[in-house]
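Input set for joint prediction.
Command: fold jointly, output tokens.
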Amino acid sequence: MRKGLAGQRLVAVFLAGVLLFDFPLLSLFDRPLRVFGVPLLHLYVFVVWAGLIAVIAWIAERGAR
Amino acid sequence: MLPGWLIVAASFSYLLVLFAVAYFGDRRADQGRSIISNAWTYALSIAVYCTAWTYFGSVGRAASGGIWFLPTYLGPTLAMALAWLVVLKMIRIARTHRITSIADFVASRYGKSHLLGGLVTVIAVVGTVPYIALQLKAISSGYGLLVGELDGLREGQAAADAGWWADGTLYIALTLALFTILFGTRHLDTTERHEGMVAAIAFESVVKLLAFLAVGVYVTFVLYDGFGDLYARAVAEPELAGVLVFDGTGSIGYGGWFAHVVLAGLAVIFLPRQFQIMVVENVNEQHLRRATWLFPAYLLAINIFVIPIALGGLLHFGRGTVDPDTFVLTLPLAHDQAALALLVFVGGLSAATGMVIVEAIALSTMVCNDLVMPMLLHVRRFGLADRRDLTGLLLGIRRGAIVVVLLLGYLYFRLAGEAYALVSIGLISFAAVAQFAPAVLGGMYWRGGTREGALAGLSAGFAVWAYTLLLPSFAKSGWLARDFLDEGPFGIGLLMPEQLFGLGGIDNVSHALFWSLLANIGCYLGVSLLRAPTGQEASQGTLFVDIFRRGESVPTSFWRAGAEVRELLPLVARFLGERRTRDAFAAYARSHGLSGIDQLKADPELVHFAETLLAGAIGSASARVMVSTVVKEEPLGLDEVMNILDEASQVRAYSHQLEEKSRALEAATAELRAANEQLKELDRLKDDFMSSVTHELRTPLTSIRALSEMMVDDPDIDPDSRQRFLGIIVSEAERLSRLVNQVLDLAKIESGHAEWHNTDLDMRELVQHAVETTAQLMRDRGASVELQLPDAVPTLRADRDRLLQVLLNLLSNAAKFVPVPGGKVWVSLGCDGKQIRVDVRDNGPGIPPAQQAVVFEKFRQGGDSLSRPQGTGLGLPISRQIVEHFGGRLWLASPPGEGATFSFVLPLASAASDQ
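tokens >
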């Protein structure tokens, strides 16, 4: 798994995370909008965060089989 | 408000529960039924990352800056995505080499250097001290709030004003030190693993998460009506607008955000306690797989309610009345939820103690193995070599180190603790441990790093960190003069610690991170590239970089030959204790199919085994020193180490050799090809020569034969004709013999068999003689000769007849080509002190540029074949050979329309070669 597909996938997730959590993508969601009563920025960060964790979990646990 | 005794009782009860968990964990470990050997415990124990900073500070940060508390957790999430690549490698390296701390890791990588280990230890201790102070501050202010001593705004002020003996924080620090000693240094272990402690840490991670979720749920769903309700109220308050958007105003923008993400991502790997938990305490590499997502999920869970609590606190208290760092406690207290407040305090205590325990254990291991032991080993006066059992000493050093570290934390709390919010103190520590990143990561992925490089990088980064973050933190709390901060040292504005070289516009942590990492990486790379790694560094570098390629097999030893078992065993026993050492050696013997210690042979593998055993207890550098006292042989030389250890380098060496060989072959091939070309050319020249010679011989032969036959066939030929024919035959025969003589001559000269009769000769006389000799020929052609001779020239040592031959050849050539009548020939002789020069110029038609090069070739006469006068075509080639034999040069200059000038020079000095 280390040098295989999973390793490459994890690196890709890492790069995606760096992009999603930083300027300029982050600034796109810094708007005075509220979704389900929650500011868009807060919702965005937590949803992307949870999404990344889910993808990492999928990759890591899948590789365990 | 709660009575103080209740809080103290609850706190101690909680600590006792922790201790029970730890005891249980150790018991189970001794029985071989580890309770920490599963991925969930491992992931939970990594959550020791969440300290009082997270517990109290996140809310405070959120209350002032909205989502700015998040980089501290997003960074680790991203770092954990790479953990399966990076941390796994660290775990494998640490296990193979029995590395027990990050200082050991760095020291071991760069040639087992004591100095480097000591430096890393100092950085770790100094850098972590503010972090420990943060925990003390959180506990003491939490206690103060609960008993109602403080109003929550300027917590700790009263305590700080009182004497140190009356300061409860000091006793908290000492209690924690005692507790850490009980947890971490009850006995020595070769691997520095503390199963019970890990179990307790995992337990406290659960407690702090549950406590924080409890207060979060209470604030969000009891005090308010869910997230939507909180946000709706917050939007209504214009004062709270900054919490809801990205607060890029002021000095910190997205650049600062990025810097904080990087900082936290590095810290989660390089903090001493994270290294301890993730790498040293790891039971099974596969556990890391689950931790890569479970730990980030934990971080997500503990952060969900941070903003709601911050909003709730701000809505309830407004800005500026209560320190936002204390909202988790003050909100329940304000609503008379004493039990919840106590639970929250225990959760905070849990977060703080967990951090302090692991950090102090990690630091004490480093201080003992990488700072104190090397010093004791160096100081012979201490008599370390004479002591039988050193286990007590080792434990004493570690316990002392724990107390010192906690007291330093208390000192920092007293000095600088009041000036900062919790998060700011923590970030100072993060920036300090980020200095380890270049040396560690560089060491894991780059073979070229050297000891000096790592030393220079770490020192430079640490110095810049201390100057730009640590000193300002003292200045801000009034322990240093503030002028230093506001105007720079000695009033030099460019050196202002928080705007170094005028770099402004970013927050102090990003500023310090940039400059310190710039200095660090720059020095690490620059100094490393100054020289090639030594044998030790190269072999360690290969072991670290190629750890996966080597698999699980323990590398062959650095020691060429072994020692005596009866010397090795007591050596290890002095540090580990008699019983543990015998057990370890016996297990080693069994694993090698031997019945007992008696049968062990002290081969290099056993020496290596002893060294790694010792490395666990006293650090790799010290272990190496100790083992070297009983091992006889010298360590292997660079070449041998490389050959034994580095299969890759062998392959590289082979391929290098192959490349060299193929290059050499190519060069040889090219030479052969060139030689072949030359041979072909020579062969062609020989053929040409042969055909030319035969052609030249045939012409006179043909006329001789024709005339002779005529006289044989016709005996009655008239006497006049006969006489004329005989005259022609004689002259043709002369020409023939001249030709044969010249061919032989040339062959002799070319093959080096010619005879040279050198004498001292005067060129004036020789030239004059040559002109006189050809006077008749010139007169026949109606040409006049003009001779220019200097008064005197130095004598020359050369073959008179040969040089005369050259002069005659040039003069007769000139005579052949001058126009009839009106021909003119100029002969001049000159000398410039180094060489003698002779020019023969005529006023003939000259030689076209195309032919100028070929007239010196054999049988290539000037002029076209019809008009050219008789000649053998060998005169000029022979002349050139002669001149060159004497080290001179013969050449032709013939500008169009000005006749031809043949010149030659003969050096005065080197013409004396007698051959």
